[in-house]
Amino acid sequence: MIALTPAAAARVRAIAERQGKAPALRLSVEGGGCAGFQYRFGLAEGREADDLVTETDGVALVVDAVSLPLVAGSVVDFVQGLGGSSFQVVNPNAQSSCGCGTSFAI
Asked: Using 50, 70 and 90 to split pLDDT, how confident is the model at 23?
């Protein structure tokens, strides 16, 4: 339903190890950004009963029930390039996105 690439899993693991936390990335969607919705990433401090949890290479991806319909079928990747490095969501539900790639519209 939603996946984390091995590159993203490796990056989450590295961040979590530095902070002494469990390797779990929480992805959520909030209203805002220049296109209407924006992604939020953070280490998952806990899990709710209705969270979707998937795992790649021992790293969990946690998505709340409200955000899930907006990101269903997505792939979360970690990319590095000349402009910097970041987590990116390839979202088949997004009909448009902003130039910086951090917000989207459905």
From this structure: very high
Return the amino acid letter for 86.
S
Q: Inform me whether the pLDDT recorded for 69 exceeds 80.
A: yes
Read off the amino acid at residue 49: A
Query: Do the strands 96-97 and 103-105 form a parallel or antiparallel pair, or are they unpaired?
Result: antiparallel
- What the block records as the tokens of 66 is 């409200």
- Could you tell me the sign of the dihedral formed by the alpha carbons of 33, 34, 36, 39, in that order? negative
DSSP-based three-state secondary structure for 14: helix
HEC profile for 43-80? Answer: ECCCCCCCCEEEEECCEEEEECCCCHHHHCCCEEEEEE
pLDDT of 7 above 60 = yes
CATH class of the domain defined by 3-105: mainly beta
Which of 50-59, 61-70, 75-84 is least confident?
Answer: 75-84
Token output for 95? 């009909």
Q: Where are the domains positioned within the chain?
A: 3-105
